[in-house]
From TrEMBL:
Top-level taxonomy: Bacteria, Pseudomonadati, Pseudomonadota, Alphaproteobacteria, Acetobacterales
Similarity remark: Belongs to the GTP cyclohydrolase II family.
Matches recorded under InterPro entries: GTP_cyclohydro_II (IPR032677), RibA (IPR000926), RibA-like_sf (IPR036144)
Name of the gene encoding the protein in the UniProt record: ribA
Name recorded for this polypeptide: GTP cyclohydrolase-2
Protein species of origin: Roseomonas alba
GTP cyclohydrolase II domain location: 191-360
């Protein structure tokens, strides 16, 4: 509210009238609410669902959820996590919205118990088995919202009304806007800053920052040499779409190959007459976020590989959208590229977003004695094109 009235009904700028921007803003707010343990209301065409993240909800959030609920809350879990909690296979039902709903005994309806049900890295013997019940409408959007917030995809959920949510001052967000968010956010990426940053391995480098209209973390393009010139002259510059890896890129972790891939790509672009572009994408852990990647690592230390560890958390093997990279390349005027990668999904993903990948350049580094299993899994289970 302002002294001039309600911004929702009296837009003061073009941006606040744009339905895409309004949707992005609301979804981003909803993510932040879940992250701090506050419930939000998902609005669908026929029903509403109040949800709170099992990982963050506290006593107040539980009380607010109960206060807005029309029925008993259930726990929504991704099917793999539900199977682990129930200690039996969970057959797929056609209308399950990619989630399993469990009715919890009162002993498990408390924040600490919910956290342990959500998190496979926490060992817990259940006093009573939860009962599988039918999945409420909008469960898929609920799981998607938790994932967007880089939380464990596990939510406590109950049918609710908009009036009750308003009375409790809970944020309401359209389920369809949650599902559309990754694509909508990617298409609003715009250049916001640019600077010359000489690098150890490439003196003639510039960084261009891109921001989406949601207020999320910026993605960066590192331009080495003059790739725009090469593109404008009909060439296809070297491009690497590099998902950020705090542990590998910054700390030199030996668990993965990201550090050598990052520095190696920049060195290679510096040597290429056409230069190159390294997209440094805010998609840590293949899109699951750093905290979940650390959880995945701890599961890998118990014997799971990188793919099964992601699934045990309730995430997919790869949660990235390549539309981010494609939008940045288009904004830079580079729609024909040679891609530095071993990952065929990246080639297909960029091609599906309208980028012409005219060639692939292998980008493999020798195992280091720690990441050998990780590299093997990439070849065997992700189909990466790695040398024998
Ligand atoms: N979830 C998860 N992410 C990881 C793990 N190890 C590395 N990553 C992340 O994976 C991303 C890099 O993806 P990779 O699959 O190694 O490589 P790629 O970029 O898809 O393929 P290339 O182009 O061939 O390198 C970075 O964001 C890393 O943080 C892991 O064990 N689990
Ligand atoms: Zn890494």
């Amino acid at each position: 509210m302002t002294p001039h009235g309600n911004l929702a009904t009296e837009p003061t700028s073009k941006a606040s009238r744009d339905p895409h921007v309004a949707a992005l803003r609301q979804v981003h707010r909803a993510m932040a609410e879940l992250r701090r343990g506050t419930p939000v209301l998902l609005r669908g065409p026929d029903a509403c669902l109040a949800v709170a993240a099992a990982e963050t909800v506290g006593a107040q959030g539980m009380a607010e959820l109960a206060g807005s609920a029309l029925g008993a809350p259930v726990l929504l879990l991704a099917p793999v996590r539900a199977a682990a909690v129930l200690q039996r296979p969970v057959p797929h039902a056609p209308d399950d919205e990619g989630a399993v709903a469990l009715r919890l005994p009162p002993s498990l309806m408390a924040p600490e118990a919910l956290r342990s049900l959500a998190d496979p890295t926490v060992e817990r013997i259940l006093p009573e088995a939860p009962e599988r019940v039918s999945v409420p409408p909008l469960a898929q959007a609920a799981i998607a919202l938790a994932k967007l917030g880089r939380l464990l995809p596990a939510l406590i959920a109950a049918p609710a009304t908009e009036a009750a949510a308003e009375r409790l001052d809970l944020l309401t967000v359209a389920a369809e806007d949650v599902l559309a968010y990754p694509a909508t956010a990617a298409t609003t990426l715009a250049r916001v800053a640019e600077a010359h940053v000489p690098l150890e391995d490439a003196q003639d480098s510039r960084i261009v920052a891109f921001r989406a209209a949601d207020g999320g973390i910026e993605h960066l393009a590192i331009l080495v040499g003059r790739p725009e010139k090469s593109a404008a002259a009909g060439g296809a510059p070297l491009v690497r779409a590099h998902s950020e890896c705090f542990t590998g890129d910054l700390l030199g972790s030996l668990r993965c190959d990201c550090g050598p891939q990052l520095r190696g790509a920049i060195t290679r672009m510096a040597q290429d007459p056409g230069g190159g572009v390294l997209l440094y994408l805010a998609q840590e852990g293949r899109g699951i976020g750093l905290v979940n990647k650390l959880r995945a690592y701890s599961l890998q230390d118990t014997g799971l590989d990188t793919l099964d560890a992601n699934r045990a958390l309730g995430y997919g093997a790869d949660e990235r959208t390549f539309l981010v990279a494609a939008t940045m390349l288009r904004a830079l005027g580079m729609e024909r590229v040679r891609l530095l990668t071993n990952n065929p999904d990246k080639i297909a993903g960029l091609a599906a977003c309208g980028i012409e990948v005219i060639g692939r350049e292998a980008h493999a580094f020798d195992p280091n004695g720690v990441n050998d299993g990780y590299l093997k899994t990439k070849a065997l289970r992700f189909g990466h094109l790695l040398p024998e």
